[in-house]
Amino acid sequence: MSHLAKDMTPDVTWRDITPGCNIYEGGTSQVVETGDWRTMKPVIDWDKCKQCLLCAPVCPDMSIPVGKDGKRGDFNYFFCKGCGICANVCPFGAISMVKEDK
Amino acid sequence: MGIRERLSGNEAVAYAMKQINPDVMGAYPITPSTEIPQYFSAYVDNGEVDTEFIAVESEHSAMSTCIGAEAAGARAISATSSCGLCYMTEMLYVAASSRLPITLAVCCRALSGPINIHNDHSDAMGVRDAGWIMLFAETNQEAYDNYLQAMRIGEAVGLPVMVCQDGFITSHAIENIELEETDKVKKFVGQYKPQHYLLNKDEPMAVGAFGMPAYYMEAKRQQAQAMIDAKDVIRKVGKEFGEMTGRTYGLVENFMMDDAEEAIVLIGSSAGTAKEAIRQLREQGRKVGLVKIRSFRPFPSEELAESLKNVKAFAVMDKDDSFNAHCGPIFAETSAALYAAGISAPKGINYIYGLGGRDVRVDSIKHVFSQLDKIVETGKTGETYRYLEVRE
Amino acid sequence: MKDIVEIRWHGRGGQGAKTASLLLADAAFNTGKYVQGFPEYGPERMGAPMTAYNRISSERSTVHSNIYEPDYVVVVDETLLSAVDVTAGLKKEGAIVINSGKAPEELRAKLHGYEGRVCTIDAGKISTEELGKNFPNTPMLAAIVKVSGVVEPEAFVKDMEASFKHKFASKPQVIEGNMRALKRSMEEVRIG
Predict the structure, then answer these.
(1) Partner-chain residue, chosen from B98, B211, B222, that has the shortest CB–CB distance to A15
(2) Is some CB atom of chain C closer than 8 A to the CB atom of B10?
(3) CB B165 within 8 A of CB B108
């Protein structure tokens, strides 16, 4: 019987569900796409971005990757829920929220 | 051979804890269970156990401590009474639904108000739906024996266990007891080897998940199965314990029930008093008996139906009132057990008794049997919801 | 339970009646008996009247109730005689043992017409003389053993000596004092 999180789907039976709904592996949220919750989408204007990195630590979904070179990259839209905190903290107006166009 | 001793119920439970040497105790004192962590903390201080004793600021935290420790992979214990058990209630549900086999010693005591420190079963009965296995002791010996069996039972099915005894009546009374040698106890109880635990570096784990409606029912159905499975585990462990000690345990104890025409059903220390009343009535040729419930959770429905099916009348005695204008919890569940088994001939009544430490004497039990006599003679059950020995 | 002996202790919170009842249970246990020793807790204030009980038998008693018709009553504090009905239910074949310097007949008048034996022991005096302090427990214990015979007196003395030696291993003078108090009490208890 599998106890992997990916097998705990809404059709799992009471015999197969993990005891206490406990989860026996790490990083299980990596497979959950929260990007489709988004109605507004952050877009960065690289000309205005000074790489001050104030945006990266405030992101609740760790959707602003920072590379080994110490510079932020583009948003990870698989996880970004479009909350807009990054746009709010950016001192340079480099991030704007636009209507999601799926 | 066991070791002949004389101990109070609290001393006996603390001694069982010492022999088992669990990993963590989280505890907060409350009368009449205070002596248990008090004695045990002395064992910790003397180096007789290597348990981590965590003194907390409330019972809610005591149970939270146990939950964290047990989930981490440790054997965790606590002790409490009365409003302390009430204050633990929220976490009791978390422990059971997270399937953590914590062991909790309970010295049953009344709840306020009026404020009262004496024995009844209001505290334990108040948390009867929390998902814990609940074993009740008649004597200090049974409190000790049940404690030694608790971890084997709980860990086999992944459910926490309450080991209940009657506050003051057994917790503070010195009586003879037969203790087992510590090496035998350790061998019987064994090590706690959880399959999954938080401190396993090779398997990251999350405890306390959020369960959406799509999952919650399945989780609960599985939890219910663990309680169903506990019946056989309790019988098996009780039999194995009997092979070691000569004292065998099941879900109930039938006392002089073979040919009984009238029976009493109850839980806890008053069973001993009832036994003496029954011995005296038997000497007069009366066919009376007792069914003592040892395991209230899981509820021994099959055993009760089997024991009561041939009696003419029975009285279920509750040391607690549900305040439902109807009956106490043991009567409700006993009646349901008989109904489910298709047994309707025995006439049953309910007595609420012994609340807040009201003394239960041999004569109290004889009075109950005299009322059963009347029912058998007249064929009329009359009022089923009765209070025993309350001043009119 | 043919041979059961039931004893009720009356004391005041803090006077050690509960401890004395547990010591008697210990002594009886050590001579092979089944014992029960338990207090009836009240509001538990220093000085408030309190009760403790013993059942002593050669077969286990399963009864878990208080004792209403005791074979013996022990009163640790004489002033309780006017506050509590100490002889309530007391069997007349039994006896009452009172901590008092008075003669038994002087106290009988206060006992609501009790017809059985009335015994007195000046536990305070014996304790003060032998131990230097008012610890009435040892003398009361010795007196009830002597009067009731619930424990065989010789075995009782031996057992108590062993237990004092264990308890006061570093204070030999306390052991001797307690033993003198014990033996004196068994001799000096006045049976009326």
Answers:
(1) B222
(2) no
(3) yes
The count of CB pairs under 8 A between chains A and B is 55
- Rounded to the nearest angstrom, the minimum Cα separation between C73 and chain B is 19
Task: Record the pTM.
Answer: 0.94
Give the model confidence (pLDDT) of C143-171 as tens digits: 999 999 999 999 999 999 998 898 888 88
The fold adopted by the segment(s) C5-191 is: Pyruvate-ferredoxin Oxidoreductase; domain 3 (3.40.920)
pLDDT of residue C44: 66
**What residues of C are in contact with residue B358 (Cβ under 8 Å)?**
none
Q: Which two tokens stand for residue C56?
A: 């002593």
State the span(s) of chain A assigned CATH 3.30.70.20.
33-102
Mean pLDDT of B332-356: 98
ipTM of the complex: 0.92
Q: Do chains B and A touch (3 or more CB pairs under 8 A)?
A: yes
- Strand, coil or helix: what is B4? strand
Spatial strand order in the sheet of B288-293: B252-255, B288-293, B262-266, B313-318, B347-352, B385-387
* Contact call for B273 and C34, based on CB within 8 A: no
Scanning every residue of chain B, which has its alpha carbon at the shortest distance from the alpha carbon of C69? Answer: B361
What's the whole-number mean pLDDT along residues A74-100? Answer: 97
Give me the residue spans of the domains in chain C. 5-191
Smallest Cβ–Cβ distance between C60 and the set B176, B273, B364 belongs to B176
Given a contact cutoff of 8 angstroms between Cβ atoms, the answer to whether B265 and B314 are in contact is yes
**Among the CATH numbers 3.40.50.300, 3.40.1190.10, 3.30.1490.190, 3.30.70.20, which is that of A33-102?**
3.30.70.20
Say if B276 is an interface residue toward chain C (CB within 8 Å).
yes
**Chain A residues lying within 8 Å of B209, measured CB to CB:** 20-23
